[in-house]
Amino acid sequence: MPGKPPSHHPRQRKRPGHRRTGLERHSRRRLFLLLVISGVAFASIGVKLLSIQALDSGRLLAARVAQSEKSVTLPALRGSILARDGNELALSEMRSTIFADPTEITHAGAEAAALAPILHETQAALQRQLTEHTTYVPLAVGGTQALADAVQKVIDTGTLPGVGINQEPVRYYPAGSLASPLVGFMNANGAAGGLEIRYNRLLTGRPGKLVEAVDPAGAPIPGGVAEDVPAVNGDDLVTTIDEGLQYQVEQALAKAITTSHGTGGVALVESTKTGQLLAAASLVSDGNGGKPTEALSETAFTNVYEPGSVSKIVTISGAIASGSITPDDTFVIPNTLLVSGSIFHDAETHPTYVLSTTGVLAQSSNIGAIQIAQRMGPYRLYHYERAFGLTQATDIGFPGESAGLVTPLAKWSGTTLPTLAFGEANAVTAAQMIGAINTVADGGVYVPPRLVTATIGPDGREHPLAAPPPHRVVPTWVARAMAGMLEQVVSNGTGLAAQVPGYAVAGKTGTSFALAPNGTYDMSRYVSSFAGFLPAQDPRVSILVVVDHTQLFGAEAAAPAFSTIARDAILDLEIPSAGPQPAPSIAAVPSIAGQPLLSYMQK
Predict the structure, then answer these.
(1) Upstream peptide bond of 138 is cis (omega within 30 degrees of 0)
(2) pTM of the entire structure?
(3) pLDDT tens for residues 234-254?
(4) Which residues contact 460 (CB under 8 A, 6 or more apart)?
(5) What would the pLDDT profile of 64-98 be if each residue is shown by its tens digit?
(6) End-to-end CA distance of the chain
């Protein structure tokens, strides 16, 4: 049909935005996903915050507190070691250490210039110290309070950043090396030797502690002390040592060692009634006349030696006490004596003669001592070795102290008894031997030697230490008889050089072979000694002198030193005389066919 439009499907009209509907849905999905992811993230953050607040709050709080508090250890002063009169042989004082931390120093030259006149050092030397590659440099150690105050005054001006002051205890020995082997010493590792280590726990004390709040700069906050535990100083020790007598004993021993060309020696002075050791010297030398010096340890306790004829005091006292002999017995003394296949002899060749018990002591006859020991028998002889304290260490408990060397009875050979009779089958310490001689001096009662009598606490109160109990060894009458016989050793025997004008001395010489470095006997060198007491009639002190590796016998090397020490003790301790040395007795000399050999009188 003309004018009729062509037939077709009419185009549908779409609503506005119809094409954007898919994009909209996609965008909404993306938005939803972002919201979910964000929610999860915020939830994680929330959980973390909750963990920090709830679970880590204690740790963080502790860290915050630690950063706002400062803990300081308060050092305790070590106790003093005192002589018997209260003078200090060792003491501790708080002293200042001036130090620097070079990492905090920015003007080393200026700080060195400020410190140099105070520390009495050169500016160049201090500047080198202030620029070392470390965080701690001690500039002055053991400084006085005045020095610390002078440095602190400059620190307070703010011109010494990196410089500080520490207060530290320092150990001093006011008497220098006097009695140093006995007292001991302190080193970087603590107590070393002597009484310092023996009583270390009592001397040490307990450190204190101060905890205080500080601001961010490290300055203390007023009233911010959280903990304040004061230090407790160590106890003081009151020893038995007489400082003046100790010095004199060391001088006398040094002279004896030098004049006899010995390699060392010991000397002890013991109060008869109390057992207190008033002096204890241990010296060493090169053996060529060099100046003796203090030994590294108190060898009177730690080293043993064969006592030689001093040991006859024990043999004869025990023989009389056991009834094996009497003071009036006599003995035929040949020039040599064969026992168990071994030949024994005295120090000098002599004809066969007769000696009384007194004469055996006065002339120091080995053969006489053997005969006396044979009458005793091994059991009694060993019993008295023990009773006189020669088989165990003293009650002092000195560090490294020896108990001596005595062959157990079950292991004795045929020659043990004869050699033990005159002091060459055993080895003892000087501390043991002076206890033995003091037993005779104290009327037959063994009084344990002592070194420390009391402690003094930080509060100043003195606490006496109980003395070890004494024990009787021989009856009083035996000890008195022995004292009379030992007087003759000094009046008319081997101990003439031990005499003291106006005083009666009782004592005994001793000589034994010294040991060579390879452990064998050195037949040309001796350990020479003298042990005795005075006044013989009323003893106040017992004295022992031992000189090691000398070519002189005890009568020459040790007896003169005994006399010197005895005179010093008389003056220092104000010991009155109880009478002069008794005259020589015929009983002390040998006899042949009933006739005394007068050549032995005052020999």
Answers:
(1) no
(2) 0.82
(3) 999 999 999 999 999 999 999
(4) none
(5) 444 577 776 778 899 999 999 999 999 998 888 89
(6) 186
